[in-house]
Amino acid sequence: MRNRRGLNRIGILAIAMIIALGAVGVTYSAWVDEIAFTGSLSTSDIYTTLECGTCSVDPATTGTSIGCATTADPTQLTITVTNAQYNATPALNPHYYCEFTVSNAVNSFLPVTVASRSITNYTGV
User: Fold this and answer.
1) In terms of pTM, does the model score above 0.90?
2) For position 71, what pLDDT does the model report?
3) Is 69 left (phi over 0), alpha (psi -120 to 50) or beta?
4) CA separation for the pair 108, 92 (Å, rounded)
5) What whole-number distance in Å separates Cα of residue 52 and Cα of residue 78?
6) I want to staple 53 with a disulfide (CB 3.0 to 4.6 A). Which of 10, 99, 110, 116 is the partner?
7) What is the mean pLDDT of the chain?
8) Quick one: average pLDDT of 82-103?
9) How far apart are CA 64 and CA 48, in angstroms?
10) Is 33 a member of any domain?
11) Tens digits of per-residue pLDDT, 32-50?
12) Per the structure, how many domains does the chain have?
């Protein structure tokens, strides 16, 4: 019988496999970890302005007009329709258009959109 000292090839291979599996396990556990963080973003005031554009009635109706005016608050404008016409046939009713422009303050890179609108002080609508 031979007397063996140390590990044979199978023993060395088994130890290498255990070390390799341990390394894979550590790497996988680091890869699937989740990191959660909270924070806040603050900006200075965002200033926008509304500017009136062209207003029109289609088709043009005699005596009917539409106008746009800004108010003291640069985030509000007033659109006034005078002598609005009505026809019992919906296809013959005029369409009222009024363009306006929403502008950011100078050097402001945050997007500004119109989020809501409210109609106040209307009669007969």
Assistant:
1) no
2) 78
3) beta
4) 44
5) 9
6) 99
7) 76
8) 80
9) 31
10) no
11) 556 666 666 666 666 777 8
12) 1
